[in-house]
From TrEMBL:
Listed name of the protein: LutB/LldF family L-lactate oxidation iron-sulfur protein
Domain of life, source organism: Bacteria
Domain called 4Fe-4S ferredoxin-type: residue spans: 308-338
SUPFAM superfamilies registered for this protein in UniProt: 4Fe-4S ferredoxins, NagB/RpiA/CoA transferase-like
This protein's UniProt keywords: 4Fe-4S, Electron transport, Iron, Iron-sulfur, Metal-binding, Repeat, Transport
InterPro entries: 4Fe4S_Fe-S-bd, 4Fe4S_Fe_S_CS, FTHF_cligase-like_sf, Helical_ferredxn, LUD_dom, LutB/LldF, LutB_C, NagB/RpiA_transferase-like
Pfam families: Fer4_8 (PF13183), LUD_dom (PF02589), LutB_C (PF11870)
PANTHER family with a match to the protein in the record: LACTATE UTILIZATION PROTEIN B (PTHR47153:SF2)
Keyword 4Fe-4S attributed: yes
Amino acid sequence: MSRTFVGWPKFPEAAAAATRNGQLRANVRRATETIRGKRELLAAERPDWDDLRDSATAIKDEVLAHLDTYLLQVEEKVTAAGGTVHWARDAAEANRIVTVLAQETGAREVVKVKSMLTEEIGLDNALEAAGIRARETDLAAAIVQLGDDLPSHVVVPALHRNRSEIRDIFVREMGRHGRPAPEGLSDDPPQLAEAARLHLREKFLTADVAVSGANFLVAETGTLVVVESEGNGRMCLTLCDTLISVVGIEKVVPTWRDLEVFLQLLARNATGERMAPYTTTFTGVTPGDGPQAFHLVLVDNGRTHALADPVGRQALRCIRCGACMNVCPVYERTGGHAYGSVYPGPIGAILNPLLKGANDPQTASLPYASSLCGACNEVCPVRIRFTDVLLELRHQVAEEGTVVKQPAEKAALRLIGTVMARPAVWNAAVRAAGKAGAVVPKRRLPGPLGGWTDSRRVPELPHESFRAWWKRTNGGTK
């Protein structure tokens, strides 16, 4: 079975371990600085850059406001074009649908186009449990899979690996899963690319079933759009007899004219390119050309839960460009694995709690995985206000009685609530607090309060409350 994030430690523990890994920090910093620099140059050359962002934001908000209508239009158009639409409310249902479809073909191995959603639902493990091998064909995703690793970035899943580590993975693992790495393989990038090309081409030419996601889903024609850099997606989408596309319900855009806006934004933000090398569009089934069976699996898996959140729903605008990660000071120091999800960085800090709810023990810490510097707000092509959503999610975790609170925190909040509900008791506590200033530690608070002072100074406690000062200086007048 492939590794998963199930049982992963909470962000504070995972981040503490990651920041002690000097090689990891160096790998992540080098990669994010490179992509960030290229993006800045290409964004600056477009005088209409902010207009494009405004248009993309408006289009996404229109889709989210009428999502039910657009999804029914997608179903109608895909069906009319010879495809079959399946609806999945959660990961288990989506995995079951895809597994049954693959089994019906008799396939023992399927090839995959990189898809964050199939990682989110754990599709590879579901297929493997049914005796079907799923082979990643995107280079970075293949590196992660061969190394029994986990993705750390939405665009470059193996961003945390350097080329020497990749060479070692190829030499050690390729032969176990197909064509072995060439003798004497070095860590020279062209040699590594050629080794991957030879290994993967064997998969393309023998597989009967391909599984993909989609970057966009055009409602007016039922067309799916896959944007990629290597051509592996084009191979999967054209050579196999059966194509199964697993797509989140938020990926819809209304028209082809709307798609144009996003194609101008995506590559510049994701990889620092004016245009992605491969943009593949496909609609249903064409006799004698490409896959002769097409299945579209539309997946919710918490998206309607996020849609119901008036502040958080803007996270569903996300086009998975990764720009927020490349500017985030927290992500740069911790890498992606610390977030415990296929969605790391600022988008992971808001999307995971929105999809799973504030009661999830693993994701409840993610809204705090941010310095609230706002750099992610500034680069997001669809103008997600990350800091607004982070603050709202922190409010939900702290104030709404979620089950993830520590027992000591729950007890403290109950006590404070009891005291504040009784004015006489509260006033006595305020007076006592002024006298306690002399005995409160100035460097580190004791016990479970110590974590608060790891990065903060204990403020000076005033000798008297504001009310007492006002009464003394103003003679009790209002």
